[in-house]
Specification:
Mean pLDDT: 91
Low-confidence stretches: none
Number of strands: 0
């Protein structure tokens, strides 16, 4: 079963800032590749929506509605 994946505006802004940082401090090509890989990682949640873990800082205050996934750019 496929699910819809939505990014909150704060996450979109963070990704845009990361893209700009890499484009300015490295190369435009690496920024593009990073963006594509981040997008692919996020969109994989349509098939694996329970992938990830509850962030410890949220678990400590009993907020368990969010999962965190990690992305390795190497």
């Amino acid at each position: 079963m496929k699910y819809k994946v939505f990014l909150v505006s704060d996450a979109e802004e963070d990704i845009f800032e990361i893209y700009n940082y890499v484009a300015i401090n490295d190369t435009q090509g690496k920024a593009e590749a990073l963006f594509e890989n981040l997008q692919e990682t996020c969109l994989k949640l349509d098939s694996f929506p329970e992938r990830g873990h509850i962030p410890p800082e949220l678990a400590r205050i009993n907020v368990v509605d969010f999962l965190e996934i990690h992305f390795n750019s190497t």
